[in-house]
Design goal:
InterPro entries: Cyt_P450, Cyt_P450_E_grp-IV, Cyt_P450_sf. Its cofactor is heme. By secondary structure, this protein is an alpha+beta fold. The chain contains 20 helices and eleven strands. A hairpin with a 3-residue loop joins strand 9 and strand 10. The longest helix has 36 residues. The chain is globular. The N terminus is likely disordered.
């Protein structure tokens, strides 16, 4: 009996040693193979799941490091439970996906499943004819002069009557403000007024946060976690069983949809009682309803607009204010431009004045280069394809372009790529006159590019310029903590823990 036991233990150790040696050989083989394929170390069946898990708290920098090591700035990622993924920071590949062979790279079912519960059939979550129809409709509405004027009028009311008084009160009371939270509230008020003609009054800090805002926060965060899950099957099982985070998501989405539908129905009744024609309507909801579109179609469209506009601008501005606190020269450049253009208060911040603020725009672009509001975006290949850098794409592959990593590629931005340098956006031959360079949107795809380029791009710049100019000509923003904030990439990136600041009066 003792001899049998001894033999059994010896055999067990031998088999364990053999298995360990085999795994080491496999690791060596796939490590060498992955170097050739330009991607993380992979194993049979598991793919790069082990590396992915180890780097789960620094995925953006992990991908950036891998892309920097790849001669083509493209990597291939394989992991258990997920489609083969091609990640690229190569502008030629980005142009091929977003423009040249646009039809072969739709969002695809794997992506639309992730956001489908929240965005439904809204413009940001559909492909093909449904997307094309909504795109034409939205494009017409966004291009009207009346909507542009309504946006500037809304900004003026929100900034002058709410944002600036709130900052003034914080300055006088020497209270610490979470500027990121304030800007998110401001953005939500603004986008709701423009999209829905509805005022949620988020900037009134004496009132509780409206349920609609809380529900949007929950729904967007859990939807984002779906996309970042190591194995998609987990959230799908939780959704089928209606448990955990998926149950919470379902409740939040119902609240969002019910609130928006109630606003739509109230607006419909108000429009029926009026004699305004469609061209006289101000907010987007009135325009869409006046055109005779169904409630559910309108609901999904305006939810998409709110989702796109609420956190992108606030994220970009939060990072800009933090960067400007570290770069006084850039801040002074903005103040000087704003003061010279306003002619000592004789002009107001109208559309034409805002459009000409190139220093503010250069600072915003440089901030978004380093901290893009949307860190990455994915499409799915309809058919086998080959990217311009020679990377083979299989039918069904997820193909991700990566603005966060692109902003950190030496090949694109030079050795000073990690530095905040707004001057890189000006023409070198005419920098004194403040003329901006023409930079390829495929090198700087923070607003996407090609047929799906962001319709609200101009509106976003107008909003951000208005806020930045209005704040900096009156106040100095001083972060309480001097440490580097943590960049959190959910559906829209934000600073972990917010941006706590003290507000001071700007010296004249």
């Amino acid at each position: 009996m003792v001899i049998c036991f001894f033999l059994f233990v010896t055999l067990g150790f031998f088999l364990l040693s053999l298995a360990f040696s085999f795994m080491q050989e496999l690791h060596s083989f796939y490590a060498k193979k992955s170097v050739f394929a330009h991607g993380p170390s992979s194993y049979p069946f598991l793919g790069c799941l082990i590396s992915f898990y180890k780097n789960r708290r620094r995925l953006l920098d992990w991908y950036t490091d891998l892309l920097s090591e790849s001669p083509s700035q493209t990597i291939v990622v394989r992991r258990l439970g997920a489609r083969r993924t091609v990640v690229t920071a190569n502008p030629a590949n980005v142009e091929y996906m977003l423009k040249t062979n646009f039809n072969n790279f739709p969002k695809g079912k794997p992506f639309t499943e992730i956001l489908g519960d929240l965005l439904g059939c809204g413009i940001f979550n559909v492909d093909g004819e449904l997307w094309s129809t909504q795109r034409k409709l939205a494009s017409h509405e966004f291009s009207t002069k009346s909507l542009r004027e309504f946006v500037v009028k809304t900004l003026q009311e929100e900034v002058e009557n709410r944002l600036l008084p709130l900052l003034q009160e914080a300055m006088e009371s020497e209270k610490v403000l979470d500027l990121q939270d304030v800007l998110r509230r401001f953005a939500f008020d603004t986008i709701c007024k423009v999209s829905l003609g509805h005022d949620p009054c988020c900037l009134d800090l004496s009132k509780p946060v409206p349920p609609l805002v809380k529900a949007f926060d929950i729904a967007s965060e859990i939807s984002a976690m779906r996309g970042m899950a190591p194995m998609f099957v987990v959230w799908k099982i939780k959704r089928a069983l209606n448990i955990g985070s998926e149950k919470k998501l379902k409740e939040a989405i119902k609240l969002v949809q019910d609130c928006v539908l109630e606003i739509i129905r109230n607006k419909k009744r108000a429009l029926e009682a009026e004699t305004k024609c469609r061209d006289d309507a101000e907010d987007l909801l009135s325009r869409l309803l006046s055109a005779g579109h169904d409630e559910e179609v309108v609901r999904d469209m305006v939810i998409s607009f709110i989702m796109a506009g609420r956190d992108t601008t606030s994220s970009a501005m939060s990072w800009l204010f933090w960067l400007l606190s570290k770069h006084q020269n850039a801040q002074n450049m903005i103040v000087k431009e704003v003061e010279s253009m306003l002619c000592n208060g004789e002009k107001e911040l109208n559309f034409e004045v805002l459009k000409e603020m190139n220093c503010v725009k250069a600072c915003l672009c440089e901030s978004m280069r380093l901290y893009p509001p949307v860190a990455w975006d994915s499409k799915h290949a309809l058919n086998d394809d080959v990217l311009p850098d020679g990377t083979f794409v299989e039918k069904g592959d997820r193909v991700t372009y990566f603005p966060y990593g692109m902003g950190r590629m030496e090949e694109l931005w030079g050795k000073d790529r990690f530095e905040f340098k707004p001057d890189r956006w000006f023409q070198e031959s005419d920098a004194e006159n403040g003329l901006l360079k023409s930079v390829s949107p495929f090198k700087f795809p923070v607003f996407q590019a090609g047929p799906r380029v962001c319709l609200g791009k101009e509106m976003a710049f107008i909003q951000m310029k208005y806020v930045v100019a209005s704040i900096l000509r009156r106040f100095e923003i001083r972060p309480v903590c001097q440490e580097q904030p943590v960049f959190v990439p959910l559906l829209t990136a934000h600073m972990a823990g917010g941006l706590n600041v003290l507000v001071r009066r700007r010296a004249s």
